[in-house]
Design a protein that fits this description.
Number of domains: 1
Helix content: 25-40%
Bound molecules: S-adenosylmethionine, iron/sulfur cluster
Oligomer: single chain
Structural class: alpha/beta
Largest sheet: 8 strands, parallel
CATH superfamily: Aldolase class I
Number of helices: 14
Strand order of the largest sheet: 9-8-7-6-5-4-3-10
Distance between the termini: 88 Å
CATH architecture: Alpha-Beta Barrel
Strand content: 15-25%
Radius of gyration: 23 Å
């Protein structure tokens, strides 16, 4: 009897020691790797099991509609939030200045590839800003050369791109999308789609010519809003001849461009469904036009933020999952809010390798 109670006390003592050591190790580990702890969020420790629960993702942990895991066929990695432009409607704002170390970003991209990723799109903030585009170039090269991804693309405002970048990394890039919301310089200024008085359109045409010279497919993205909704862009788009012209209806995201803690207030840019349709009707002769209404856009993108957390937009804001670097892709993607049907409906899967495109150049 006496021996049995001694053994039980000893076991309890050992268990207590193990859990204390585990807690200490976890707290040290979280400090060394800030993305584990979700820097930028107010954090609170859920338990010593390694679960870090933030006020934002606590809701998700309780959510009933956690999704079954889907394949991350096409992923958008917003590795930086910093930008040199001030677009008034921007829905991915500079809430942190964090960028993962290069080797960690590569590790995450490898995990995605192992989970079935075929296309990666690098976005931001402005992706050419960090290390003057060298960080981006290294990721582009890694994804094409090492991971052999069928499609590697970038979305940029085009203002920071240099010819040298194309000389070094152009061969690894399939598609470069440049955002342009107006062919009137003054309208771009009013929107904030500019750095100071520098010409946004000048950069657009320069980059378009480099794409031709260095054999990169050229794409254009436009956000339709109150400032450009009456414009007719047919002539300019026809002349620039992009492989795709994505036309977005200006979207509001709480905490980004709407609501109290947002860095932008974009309500004055918002247009109705009918106004958006009228813009589309004016451009029916442009065959490369791909329209994206708010409904089509909101949940049809797999978005990874600067910590490699999927962002769930279903509630009209960007609720983060845990980082794929901590819990893996299969677990994190269940909190992505991704609507695969809508992704296919909006034509998310298309000929996306430049090797398969019949580029005229
Ligand atoms: C957030 S930006 C980041 C990349 C780069 N800075 C740029 O502007 O192209 C990615 C894309 O989202 C678009 N975008 C930004 N805010 C938007 C909004 N409120 N509604 C719809 N599209 C938006 C941009 O025009 C761009 O094509
Ligand atoms: S939409 Fe404008 S402000 Fe936002 S990241 Fe792109 S260029 Fe910067």
């Amino acid at each position: 009897m006496f021996l049995a109670s001694e053994v039980a006390s000893l076991r309890l003592f050992v268990q207590l020691c193990i859990s204390t050591v585990y807690c200490i190790l976890w707290s040290v580990f979280s400090k060394v790797r800030p993305w584990t702890a979700g820097v930028g969020c107010l954090q609170e420790k859920g338990s010593c099991s390694g679960e870090t629960i933030t006020p934002v993702n606590r809701k998700q942990h309780q959510k009933k509609d956690v999704q079954p895991a889907t394949t991350p066929t096409s992923v958008n990695y917003h590795f930086t939030r910093k930008c040199n432009y001030k677009c008034g409607f921007c829905f991915h704002t500079a809430k942190t200045s964090f960028v993962l170390p290069l080797e960690e970003a590569k590790r995450g991209l490898k995990l995605l590839k192992e989970s079935g990723m075929e296309k990666i799109n690098f976005s931001g903030g402005e992706p050419f800003l960090h290390e003057k585009g060298d960080f981006l170039g290294k990721l582009v090269q890694y994804c094409k050369q090492d991971l052999q991804l069928p499609s590697v693309s970038i979305v940029s405002n085009g203002s920071m791109i240099k010819e040298k970048w194309f000389q070094k990394y152009g061969e690894y890039l399939d598609i470069l999308a440049i955002s342009c919301d107006s062919f009137e310089e003054e309208t771009n200024q009013l929107i904030g789609r500019a750095q100071g008085r520098k010409s946004h359109l000048g950069n657009l045409y320069k980059v378009r010519n480099w794409c031709q010279q260095y054999k990169v497919a050229f794409k254009i993205n436009s956000v339709i809003n109150t400032f450009n909704v009456d414009e007719d862009m047919t002539e300019h788009i026809t002349q620039l001849s992009p492989v795709r012209w994505k036309v977005f209806q200006c979207l509001l995201i709480d905490g980004e461009n709407a609501g109290e803690d947002a860095l932008r207030q974009a309500e004055r840019f918002v247009i109705s469904e009918q106004q958006f349709q009228e813009f589309l009707d004016r451009h029916t002769s442009v065959s490369c036009l791909v329209p994206e209404s708010n409904e089509k856009m909101r949940d049809s993108y797999l978005i990874l933020d600067e910590y490699m957390r999927f962002l769930d937009c279903r509630e009209g804001r960007k609720d983060p999952s845990r980082s794929i670097l901590d819990v893996g892709v299969t677990e994190a993607i269940r909190f992505s809010g991704f609507d695969e049907k809508m992704f296919l409906k909006r034509g998310g899967k298309y000929v996306w390798s430049k090797a398969d495109m019949r580029l005229e150049w």
